[in-house]
Write a structure and sequence with these properties.
The complex is a heterodimer of chains A (about 120) and B (about 240). Chain A is of the alpha/beta class and about 120 residues long. Chain A has 6 helices and 4 strands. Chain A has a 4-stranded parallel β-sheet with strand order 2-1-3-4, with helices on both faces. Chain B is elongated, with a radius of gyration of 34 Å. At the A-B interface, helix 1, strand 3, strand 4 and helix 5 of A face helix 1, strand 1, strand 2 and helix 6 of B. Chain B: Its main location: cytoplasm. Chain B: GO terms for molecular function: unfolded protein binding.
């Protein structure tokens, strides 16, 4: 995959998606499949999870940006993802500030200092 | 003989401990840097939202929403990913406009020579048969074609800002600038996250190695304490009292 660059996918609320699309990350591919999902009040958790998994399966996505409050809804799916590509980045949302103690990566790093590791 | 073996083991233990300490310090530095970058990322996102809200206030509630997204969306930024030997991934952003201009610089002959030459010959042939009045028009057309940029090298690549109108407020432009910075920073954060996880793995391996080399003294101490407590563990003794 040295020739063509990868994309940044976004799962977030309206303002987050609008902002990142303004920044130029958006793409509608040949099959009219977007690399972003605007989560609204009526968006189901199943839909979010399926979209997240579809982004994981796509080989043209390098980073997945996801609002932390949405990541909380599909925490099991995020924790199950152990590969380095695509990288999953949890970002804050307007109503929910970023909480480092909830972040999957930092929790994994913290796990380093659990009693299990010192046995 | 026995002292030699114990000395060797002691040296190995020291080396392992030193390596572990170095790795742990590196790990801490990386975590600190990650936190720093995270803070910057979060404040930039907040800045972006604030600008979007200001734009929404001046343009109207429905003017800055998902309904305004273009029907054709093309990425203007791409991520270059490089996987290192230890499984670490490096992410680097690259703007697509820059890529296109680099392509043009690499192959400038296509733009300068071929297009205008063909066009010029064709025009000369046509003007021979036409009236002398039209001759004055032909060179003008030739000149205009020569100065206009070739359309096939630069396909229509719309700026997302134009989804929201031609004359957008300054605040929306500021939001775009903020989010462009966020995108660059998010690639850096992703790289750091990957580095942190790789260092964590390394730490685990080093810790395992060190534990293998340490003599099993820990279990002896446990049995000793049990003997002192009269066959009871600490928890049991406290619960009884």
């Amino acid at each position: 995959m040295a020739g063509r660059g990868k994309l940044i996918a976004v799962i977030g609320d309206e303002d987050t998606c609008t902002g990142f699309l303004l920044g130029g990350v958006g793409e509608l591919n040949k099959n009219r499949k977007p690399n972003f999902l605007v989560v609204e009040k009526d968006t189901s958790i199943t839909e979010i999870e399926e979209t997240f998994k579809s982004f994981l399966a796509r080989d043209d996505i390098g980073i997945i940006l996801i609002n932390q409050f949405i990541a909380e809804m599909i925490r099991h799916a995020i924790d199950a993802h152990m590969q380095s590509i695509p990288a999953v980045l949890e970002i804050p949302s307007k109503e929910h500030p970023y909480d480092a103690s909830k972040d999957s990566i930092l929790r994994r790093a913290k796990g380093m200092f659990s009693a299990e590791d010192f046995r | 003989m026995l002292t030699d073996v114990t000395e060797e083991m002691g040296v190995e233990m020291n080396e392992a401990s030193q390596r572990l300490d170095e790795c742990l310090l590196r790990f801490m530095d990386q975590l600190e840097l990650l936190e720093e970058k995270r803070e910057r990322l979060n404040s930039l996102i907040e800045q972006g939202w604030f600008s979007i809200s200001k734009a929404r206030y001046s343009m109207g509630n429905k003017q800055v929403s998902t309904l305004q997204y273009g029907s054709e969306i093309e990425p203007r930024v791409q991520i270059n990913v490089r996987v290192l030997e230890n499984g670490e991934a490096e992410f680097d952003t690259q703007r697509v406009e820059r890529l296109r201009s680099e392509d043009l610089e690499k192959d400038p002959r296509q733009v300068e020579d071929i297009g205008p030459k063909d066009e010029g010959v064709r025009r000369r042939g046509v003007t021979k048969e036409e009236d002398p009045k039209d001759q004055s028009v032909a060179p003008r057309a030739y000149v205009s074609k020569e100065t206009s940029p070739p359309s096939r090298e630069l396909p229509q690549h719309q700026d997302p800002l134009k989804w929201f109108g031609i004359l957008v407020p300054q605040s929306l432009k500021q939001a775009q600038v903020s989010f462009k910075k966020v995108i660059e920073l998010s690639a850096e954060v992703a790289t750091l996250q990957s580095t942190v996880l790789a260092t964590r793995k390394e730490l685990q391996v080093l810790m395992g190695n060190k534990h293998e080399k340490t003599p099993p003294r820990h279990t002896d101490r446990q049995t000793d304490t049990r003997c002192i407590n009269g066959g009871q563990t600490d928890e049991e003794s406290t619960s009884d009292s």
